[in-house]
Amino acid sequence: MSFNIRGRAWKFGDNISTDLIMPSFAYMKVGHNYKKLAKYVMYTNRPNWTEKVERGDIIIGGKNFGCGSSRPAAGPLKALGISCIIAESISRIFFRNSISLGLPVLEAPNIQRFCVENDILEVTLVKGTIKNLSTGKKMKIKPIPKNSPPMQILEAGGLSAFLKEEILQ
Amino acid sequence: MAEKILARHSGREKVNVGEYIWAKIDVTSPGNNLGALMELKETGIKKAFDPEKIFVVYPNTLLPSSLEASEQVNSLRKLVKEYGMKWFEYGRHCIFHQVFAENGFCVPGDLVAMEDSHTTNYGAFNVAACPIYVECTYVMATGKLWFKVPESIKFWLTGKLPELCMGKDVILKILGTWGSDVSMYKSAEFLGPLASNLSISSRWSIATMGVEIGAKFALFEADQKTFNFLKGRTNRPYNPVKSDSDAEYVEEHIVDVADLEPLVACPHDPSNVKPITQVEKDEVKVHQAFIGSCVNGRQEDLEIAAKILEGNKIHPDVRMIISPASPEVWKDALNAGWMDIFLDAEAIISPPTCGPCFGFEGILAAGETCISSSCRNFRGRLGSPESKIFLANPATVAACAIAGKIVDPRKYI
């Protein structure tokens, strides 16, 4: 898993729920298949957006990103090619699911003012730095601590790989 | 309370807010994440940490409606039996939190991590219970999980609940006043004279919707009502925790319900809460009314609905769905005569299901509105992005079903 990320910013507002990211009608239709679910991400609030997303793009969220249901919304986001989520605050279950699926998620209270849509951002996970390559601005955030379980799980590439390593030991 | 439970489960005297720990999980369930069972098998795990402590139901919907679905259920059924986990066959299944609690799943002082965001509900029984999804395989394999020790936030519940106000209105008041992120990452503790006076059912509604205020845990203290509910359901010893008088809280909020009136969460967020007298003025036409879900599908909820519906007919343009949360609730409703009232009023009585809450059944077409006793009203949750969901207590839902529009239930008693 890459700890240095570069991608284009897509901006979303507050309280983006997992119902919006992974709608129930979509998984009724295609089942729990992340690749197939990817095209339904934000279908309700931003139809056809997924067609514009390119591998490596970054989602910028407001407050309480990923709130609501515990469904693994990080799965379709990752399958869509999203490399990282940066939001003002992140719902607890969404945070844990993302880490467990190896999708980096970061809290950055001022991120909405730091960039506009289509800016190119560069993120260094371990140091907790975000560079806006379009404006030249830099910001520092609290990184996920080294040696903490979430960082160890990210380093393993997700919880499934982490479990396999644990069993082998 | 959360710190005490986490310390006890990580073999420590004391844990500190903000530190990362690994803690032992008492009981778990893959809930809707049945892929976790397959992953367990694929990873080569031969034995789950303690199969007796893993409860499994097929997801909270009705019987399989296709051959494909039926084959899937069957392969899962086989896996559950192979691992020796506790399986709830159809007829004993559905809103799993209700069925699990009725079957002695957890006891005061437990630490639970299981699938489904409304896992916070077991906090009604003094259980630190947090929702997971992807981590189900890991917990079933190892019986442990990492935690960041949360800060605690106190909601001091006080005042006497006015007529036709219920636990649902208490949590809606909290949502409307402090927002859906007030308890993010925190352990929410509900204390005070009203917390003691509330029925188990009302406490349960509040703890269930703890996740709607972002909570990791939503804890009540255990008391005689808790023990009465658990009696005969489990043989496991209880180890309840209480809040110390000098316990540290990052925030403390007083929730006084003396002047409360039934509340409604308007589209498209559970925190968009308004009093019924205000919403009533808008004359909102209703197409579907739903009483059920893990929040409001219990005896207390059906009883109040029966009081309102007795001798009335549901509005001709409304379909009303009433889904008892478990076979036990259903039987009690039958014995109490409430089912007769519902049928006479021309409601649909549905087997226990989560469907009309999370969008598997009772799908809304564009332009339709549902008044629901459930937990969430996010845009598009029940179908069309152009549909609307209003959340309210079961008394309000029943009154709206009669009127065909959003009305104050106090006029219908």
Descriptive report:
The complex is a heterodimer of chains A (169) and B (413). In chain A, 31% of the residues lie in helices and 18% in strands. Chain A has 169 residues and is an alpha/beta fold. A seven-stranded mixed β-sheet of chain A has the order 4-3-2-1-5-6-7. Chain A is globular. Chain B has 15 helices and 17 strands. At the A-B interface, helix 2, helix 5 and helix 8 of A face strand 5 and helix 5 of B.
Low-confidence runs of at least 5 consecutive residues of chain A: none
Q: What share of residues of chain A is helical?
A: 25-40%
> What's the number of domains of chain A?
1
- Number-wise, the strands of chain A total 7
CATH architecture of chain A: Alpha-Beta Barrel
CATH topology assignment of chain A:
Aconitase, domain 4
Q: How many strands of chain B?
A: 17
Output the keywords.
heterodimer; A: 169 residues; Aconitase, domain 4; 7-stranded mixed β-sheet; 8 helices; globular; B: 413 residues; alpha/beta; Aconitase, domain 3; 2 domains; 5-stranded parallel β-sheet; 17 strands; 17% strand
Task: Summarize the helices and strands and which ones pair or pack.
The complex is a heterodimer of chains A (169) and B (413).
Chain A: E1 4-11, H1 18-21, H2 24-30, H3 34-37, E2 58-61, H4 74-80, E3 84-87, H5 92-100, E4 105-107, H6 111-114, E5 120-124, E6 129-132, E7 138-140, H7 149-156, H8 159-168
Parallel strand pairs in A: 1-2, 2-3, 3-4
Antiparallel strand pairs in A: 1-5, 5-6, 6-7
Helix pairs in contact in A: 7-8
Chain B: H1 2-9, E1 20-24, H2 35-42, E2 55-57, H3 67-83, E3 86-88, H4 96-102, E4 111-115, E5 128-132, H5 136-142, E6 144-148, E7 152-158, H6 167-178, E8 187-191, H7 193-197, H8 200-208, E9 217-220, H9 224-230, E10 251-256, E11 263-265, E12 273-275, H10 276-280, E13 288-291, H11 299-309, E14 319-322, H12 327-335, H13 338-345, E15 348-349, H14 355-358, E16 369-372, E17 388-391, H15 394-403
Parallel strand pairs in B: 2-3, 4-5, 7-8, 7-10, 8-9, 13-14, 13-16, 14-15, 16-17
Antiparallel strand pairs in B: 1-6, 11-12
Helix pairs in contact in B: 2-5, 6-8, 11-13, 11-15
